[in-house]
């Protein structure tokens, strides 16, 4: 990594000393002699590390204002504050605003170089983590051969070629964010940002700030999700949780294709593809007054619906094989062997959907059991609270044998049909029945066949 360090100091001698010191250490430098020069350099290209003098040509706290400006654009950039007018209040204030270190003049060169080295290590570590997380996430694919997943893959291929807004519906943990990422990755915008705004996690008072950004009194700007996603894609996750007052402002942005930052006077034009997702039925939210119908129709240009995992059991064995391989590679351990026909797994309700299944496999990888029996014990222990056999026993202890048997057959055959994606021939072969006999049995139990 070629590290570039911005040096901001109004004293030419100190600028030159710092410049020579940092160049000799093997880093690149950029220099600024006053507040406006520094602002221009920061806005032109964000440095990897910044060294700022507190007092420049505009006032006593120029460096703190520049620090705030840098952090509003990229909170991960380490900033070292230097000053010849140090006091405890100033040091506390700079650290409160996110400074990496606070150094008094005259500074010890060895000590300062040590701070710079640590700041660079911090940058490199964060960059490595981002690359790892990006590779890890982008390496995950939409796995399954159920009709639902095959249909979604086809929809992704078609909609990625357009600029249409998309609404993705599905339960928590089912893969809504993954679908949005796949759309972005396959689109013409794939080299531009993919930004996520989670409506369920934001403080109710910060929605406008997070969406639109803010112009501060000191001239610095805090950019919102809309500007961060410019030319790219913005995913508003759990859009149902956005307050009505903010929904109206989102609607206005979609209509006018522009907005103003908080405390700003100028219109900001952005080119963003908007994708929204929801675990709630937005039509029901409209009925009870929690969601605007006009916004719903603006967002729902194209709709994708992903089903819960227990509605597509045939995908479970494929997901087990896929995650076992991926997670084994990530942990650099020998391949996991997990029985994808385990009744505990197939009959579990999977309230957490694909995320819950992936977490189970990751738990097995962390514990590294060395026998199939130990793997099975981890599965049973993890899923026992929702075990199919226990549920059947509890439900059937107080009813006649004939009714209990019918209940069992109905649940058993329904599960098997889902497991084989509605294929009657495969289901009949697995359960040991003639195809025609299975048809009669399903009809007698009131089980609707599906394709």
Can you offer a commentary on this structure?
With 451 residues, the chain is of the alpha/beta class. It is built from 20 helices and 14 strands. The strands form 4 sheets. The chain has a 5-stranded parallel β-sheet, sandwiched between helices. α4 links the parallel β4 and β5. The chain is elongated.
Question: TL;DR of this structure?
Answer:
The chain has 451 residues and is α/β, with parallel strands linked by helices. It has 20 helices and 14 strands.
Low-confidence stretches: 387-394
Strand tally: 14
CATH architectural name of the largest domain: 3-Layer(aba) Sandwich
Structural class: alpha/beta
* Percentage beta strand: 5-15%
Summarize this structure as a short list of keywords or feature phrases:
451 residues; alpha/beta; Rossmann fold; Helicase, Ruva Protein, domain 3; elongated
């Amino acid at each position: 990594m070629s590290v570039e360090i911005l040096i901001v100091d109004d004293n030419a001698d100190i600028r030159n000393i710092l410049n020579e010191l940092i160049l000799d250490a093997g880093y690149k430098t950029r220099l600024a002699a006053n507040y406006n020069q520094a602002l221009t350099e920061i806005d032109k290209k964000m440095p990897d590390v910044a060294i700022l003098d507190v007092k420049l040509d505009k006032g006593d706290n120029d460096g703190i204002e520049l620090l705030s400006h840098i952090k509003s654009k990229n909170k991960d950039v380490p900033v070292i504050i230097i000053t010849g007018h140090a006091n405890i209040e100033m040091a506390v204030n700079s650290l409160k605003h996110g400074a990496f270190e606070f150094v008094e003049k005259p500074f010890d060169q060895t000590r300062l170089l040590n701070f710079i080295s640590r700041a660079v290590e911090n940058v490199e570590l964060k960059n490595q983590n981002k690359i790892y997380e990006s590779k890890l996430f982008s390496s995950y694919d939409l796995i399954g051969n159920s009709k639902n997943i095959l249909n979604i893959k086809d929809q992704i291929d078609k909609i990625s070629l357009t600029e249409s807004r998309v609404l993705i519906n599905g339960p928590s943990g089912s893969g809504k964010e993954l679908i949005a990422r796949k759309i972005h990755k396959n689109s013409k915008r794939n080299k531009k940002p993919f930004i996520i705004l989670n409506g369920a996690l934001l403080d109710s008072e910060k929605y406008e700030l997070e969406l639109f950004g803010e112009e501060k009194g000191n001239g610095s700007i805090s950019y919102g999700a809309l500007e961060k996603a410019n030319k790219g894609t913005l995913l508003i996750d759990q859009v149902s949780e956005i307050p009505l007052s903010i929904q109206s402002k989102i609607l206005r942005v979609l209509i006018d294709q522009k907005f103003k930052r908080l405390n700003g006077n100028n219109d900001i034009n952005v080119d963003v593809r908007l994708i929204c997702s929801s675990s709630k039925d937005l039509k029901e939210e409209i009925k009870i007054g929690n969601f605007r119908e006009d916004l719903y129709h603006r967002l729902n240009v194209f709709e994708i619906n992903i089903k819960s995992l227990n509605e597509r059991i045939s995908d479970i064995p494929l997901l087990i094989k896929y995650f076992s391989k991926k997670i084994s590679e990530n942990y650099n351990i020998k391949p996991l062997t997990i029985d994808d026909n385990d009744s505990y797994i197939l009959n579990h309700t999977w309230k957490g959907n694909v995320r819950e299944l992936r977490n189970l496999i990751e738990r097995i990888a962390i514990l590294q059991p060395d026998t199939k029996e130990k793997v099975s014990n981890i599965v049973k222990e993890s899923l026992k609270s929702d075990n199919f056999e226990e549920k059947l026993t509890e439900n059937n202890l107080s009813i006649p044998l004939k009714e209990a048997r019918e209940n069992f057959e109905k649940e058993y055959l329904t599960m098997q049909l889902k497991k084989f994606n509605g294929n009657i021939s495969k289901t009949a072969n697995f359960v040991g029945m003639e195809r025609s006999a299975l048809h009669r049995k399903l009809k007698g139990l009131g089980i609707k066949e599906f394709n």
